[in-house]
Amino acid sequence: MADEDFTLEDSTPEGVLGSRDPNAVDMFGEPLKPAVVEGSAAYTVIARKYRPRTFEDLYGQEAMVRTLKNAFASGRIAHAFMLTGVRGVGKTTTARLLARALNYETDALHEPSLDLKDEGRHCKAIIEGRHMDVLELDAASRTGVADMRELLDGVRYAPVEARYKVYIIDEVHMLSTGAFNALLKTLEEPPPHAKFIFATT
Q1: Three-state SS for 146?
Q2: 198 φ, ψ to 5°?
Q3: Spatial distance between the Cα atoms of 147 and 137, rounded to a whole number of angstroms
Q4: Lesser CB count within 10 Å: N end or C end of the chain?
C-alpha cells in the first residue's frame, strides 16, 4: 500500500466540520469552539482549565475553609499547614490558594485575606508559578538533603516583594530522613516571614 492510501483529504464531505449548530454548548454550558482554529493556543486539560481560583470554588472542603477563615479573622495564622487527602481532592490547589491568601494585597487591603474575588498584586504571578517569594518543591522527585538545603538557603532573608515567603512542599511523605532532618530545625523555629505548606497523601 502506498502512503497516499492513508490520507483523509477527501473522506469528509464538504462543509461537515463547519455545519455545527451555532447555539450548541459543551457539557459545561460554554459555547462550542470551532473544530480547527488557525494559530490557536495549546490545549489545556480540564483539571487545569476548571481549577478553583477562590476558596468559594473549593467544593467539599467547607470545614477546612471555615477553619482557615476563623484563623485569618482572629489573626492567629499558623506558620505551617499540613494538607492531607487522597489524590485529586485539591491539596496542591489549596496550597496555592493559601499562598495567595497569605500574600493578598490590593490598593484597599493590606493584610492576609481569604476573599480572593478581586485579583491582588501578587495573585497572577503566584497562579502562574513565577512569584519569587512562593517556592515549590516536589518531594517525590527531589528527596535529597542537598535539595532541601538548596530550598531553605534563603529562608533567613526577608521576602522580596510579598508579605511572606511561602514554601510549598508537595508529596512531603517522600522526603528522605536526612532531608526531613535538614528541614526540622527551620520548621521548629521559623523566621516570622516564612510559612510552610505541606501536601501529602
Answers
A1: helix
A2: -110, 140
A3: 9
A4: N
Joined together, the cell numbers standing for residue 109 give 487591603
Give the per-residue pLDDT at 148.
87
The rounded distance, in Å, linking the Cα atoms of 95 and 84 is 11
d(CA 185, CA 43): 43
> β-strand 165-170 against 80-84: which pairing, if any?
unpaired
124: number of Cβ within 10 Å: 12
Q: Distance between CA 201 and CA 194 in Å, rounded? A: 24
In the prediction, which pLDDT does 149 show? Answer: 87
| Separation CA 51–CA 128 (nearest Å) | 12
Q: What is the pLDDT of residues 69-88, one digit of tens each?
A: 999 999 889 999 999 988 88
Report the amino acid identity of residue 85. Answer: G
| Backbone φ and ψ of 194, nearest 5° | -110, 135
